[in-house]
């Protein structure tokens, strides 16, 4: 959140909302790559011998990076459309209409991805517990719900920073409720959604 507000502080001088430093984007991409490699090796169904372990790590790193890049493009576009179309408050008469940059939406996505990546690291450490039957599925789905809700909260904070955006809180509550409902239904059905998705990184 502090990084998001730091971006906005520069907007008063340059007229731009997005940060010029791509450091957070690169750090998040690197973290996603490391997590992908780790989960690929941990969830691999093949014997991890001398040849298969490097292959599993390389594939997981590539898949993690690819997933982050794809989600960054998709989520940033959705956030940009929300700021520009759905959540924009009516502009007062005789005032210049401001516009949100897609690059700023990417900054917001990167900030919001930090708790998700942190949750992924925690799930990796607790993987034996999270993979143990219905209780593991319940804990795993709950952790994913908290991570997704944190993402939505940070993203909403970033959008609310824009002076022409309104109604972000209502959109976040609706999305968080939908995530919680999906996680509840998956838990009742005994489906471990996070591990099912992460297993696709394994070879």
Compute the number of strand runs: 0
Number of helical stretches of at least 4 residues = 9
Mean pLDDT: 80
Measured on Cα atoms, how large is the radius of gyration? 19 Å
Ranges where pLDDT stays below 50 over 5 or more residues in a row are 1-13
The proportion of strand residues reads under 5%
User: How much helical structure, as a percent, in the residues?
Assistant: over 70%
CA-to-CA gap between the ends? 36 Å
Helix and strand composition category? mainly alpha
Overall number of structural domains: 1
Order of helices and strands: HHHHHHHHH
Shape: flat
Sheet with the most strands, sense and barrel status = none
Describe this structure in words.
This protein is mainly alpha-helical and 203 residues long. 75% of the residues lie in helices and 0% in strands. The protein has nine helices and no strands. Helix 7 runs antiparallel to helix 8. The longest helix is centred in the middle third of the chain and has 35 residues, at 52-86. Residues 1-13 have low confidence and may be disordered.
């Amino acid at each position: 959140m502090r990084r998001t507000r730091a971006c906005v502080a520069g907007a008063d001088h340059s007229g731009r909302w997005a940060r010029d430093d791509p450091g957070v984007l690169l750090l998040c991409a690197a973290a996603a790559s490391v997590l992908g490699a780790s989960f690929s090796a941990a969830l691999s169904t093949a014997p991890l011998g001398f040849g298969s372990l490097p292959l599993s790590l390389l594939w997981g790193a590539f898949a993690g990076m690819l997933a982050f890049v794809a989600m960054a493009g998709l989520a940033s576009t959705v956030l940009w459309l929300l700021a520009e179309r759905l959540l924009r408050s009516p502009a007062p008469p005789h005032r210049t209409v401001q516009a949100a940059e897609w690059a700023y939406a990417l900054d917001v996505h990167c900030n919001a991805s930090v708790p998700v990546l942190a949750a992924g690291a925690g799930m990796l450490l607790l993987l034996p517990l999270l993979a143990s039957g219905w209780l593991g599925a319940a804990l795993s789905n709950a952790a994913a719900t908290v991570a997704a809700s944190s993402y939505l909260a940070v993203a909403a904070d970033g959008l609310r920073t824009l002076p022409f955006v309104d109604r972000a809180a209502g959109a976040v509550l609706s999305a968080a409720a939908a995530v919680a409902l999906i996680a509840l239904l998956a838990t009742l059905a005994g489906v471990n959604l996070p591990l099912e998705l992460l297993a696709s990184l394994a070879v």
